[in-house]
TrEMBL record:
Matching Pfam families: Beta-prop_KIB1-4 (PF03478)
Top-level lineage group: Eukaryota
Protein name, UniProt field: KIB1-4 beta-propeller domain-containing protein
Domain KIB1-4 beta-propeller: 8-206
Organism expressing this protein natively: Arabis nemorensis
Length: 261
């Protein structure tokens, strides 16, 4: 999906291998994040868009499906009545879109029921918030958060169901994560030296360099020589302390059987 930086914001899906192009209705709101549920060639595809800015009392969400002539835009009440911050990461899992912020919230949208719920979690204990230092991936109904700003090594978390907490994972069990600011891919079946690694298209401290981290060898490739302040900070600022304000929240009660974390 691409957004032409013009006044009318034409949008389309483009397959670089087949050169196929799927046009979407024009979208006149530049300050939105986008995600989609499956291949746009499928009739069940849902394109999801949310205004990145957290507004005081509502969140603006737009959706589009193949065959529709225009976007469906709705303003949903923000149950927390909180502003400040931005929606940054979106992932689709088991029929639901999950949105994370650079603050302390997880938004969950059910496109079939047109239902939006914002859950609050404690803000990470970080010395600095680094733009582009968090990545989100989905695999078989599980949501993973990769923190590339932590000291010495990236930290991977999986979102547990009840209580709603981020649990640190010390191994990828042979799987591989390809992380970029635009999207992340979780691959469980790769072989050889690519197993149990996280590949970054770029790092927060070096926007021109691709790097990987091996959980088996506990090191970066190539060596993480740049950004030494982040590798050896004066204070620990990893996000291992994710938890919830109310540990009794079971989000399956909110979305029923559709939610499987």
């Amino acid at each position: 999906m691409n957004n032409l930086h013009s006044s009318d914001y034409d949008m389309y899906f483009f397959n670089p291998f087949t050169r196929d192009l799927i046009n979407l209705p024009r979208f006149g709101k530049p300050d939105h994040k986008f995600a989609f549920s499956c291949a746009p060639t499928m009739s069940t595809c849902v394109v999801f868009s949310i205004c990145i800015h957290l507004l005081p009392h509502h969140d603006s969400i737009s959706t589009w499906s193949p065959g529709a002539m225009e976007w469906v835009t709705e303003s949903f009440k923000n149950q927390l009545y909180l502003s400040n911050g931005q929606w940054r990461n979106i992932v689709f899992s088991d029929g639901l879109f999950y949105c994370l912020t650079n603050r302390d919230k997880i938004g969950v949208f059910d496109p079939s029921a047109r239902y939006w719920r914002v859950l609050i979690v404690l803000r990470p204990r970080m010395h600095h918030f680094l733009e582009g230092a968090w990545y989100v991936a989905e695999h078989k109904g599980h949501i993973f958060l990769i923190d590339a700003a932590s000291s010495r090594k990236p930290v991977v978390f999986r979102l547990n169901r009840s209580p709603l907490i981020w649990a640190e994972k010390h191994t990828l069990k042979g799987s591989t994560i390809f992380a970029s600011p635009a999207s992340c891919v979780f691959k469980p079946e790769l072989t050889g030296t690519t197993r149990n690694k996280v590949y970054f298209s770029k790092m927060p401290f070096n926007s021109t360099s691709c790097m990987s981290y091996s959980f088996d060898e506990r090191r970066y490739f190539p060596d993480r020589t740049e950004g030494e302040d982040f590798a050896n900070p004066q204070e620990d600022f990893n996000i291992s302390a994710f938890t919830t304000i109310d540990s009794e929240i079971d989000i399956s009660s909110i979305f029923g059987d559709k939610l499987r974390i």
